[in-house]
Amino acid sequence: MRWMSSWLLRASLTAVAVLAAGAAQAQDSNALRARSLAATCAQCHGTAGRAIEGAAVPGLAGMPAAYLSAQMKAFASGTRPASVMQQLAKGYSEAQIEQLAAYFAAQSPAGSTKK
Questions:
Q1: Which residues are CB-contacts of 38 (< 8 A; sequence separation ≥ 6)?
Q2: Structural domains in the chain?
Q3: Verdict on whether the full-model pTM lies above 0.90
Q4: What is the rounded CA–CA span in Å between residue 93 and residue 102?
């Protein structure tokens, strides 16, 4: 009987470890996917949304996710005029827009210590 409870305990701990590893891997893949999407914005908005000083386009790092999402959706629908962003925004799904908004909101603006 003692060996059975020992075996059950080990099996349970192994199962918990496997589930935790799977959750961490899912988070890593989501973070990588968001970073990959954000890389497409770097040409104009800077790496991780940190535009260079004096740039004609704003940096996106640290802006509220709800604001970024609303602006992207406005570009995609055509209610916010822009020559380039309207076309780019149409290429993203709603889920990708939300993912991008969350990614940029989590970034610290240039010269900031926010993490």
A1: 48, 49, 100, 103, 104
A2: 2-106 (1.10.760.10)
A3: no
A4: 14
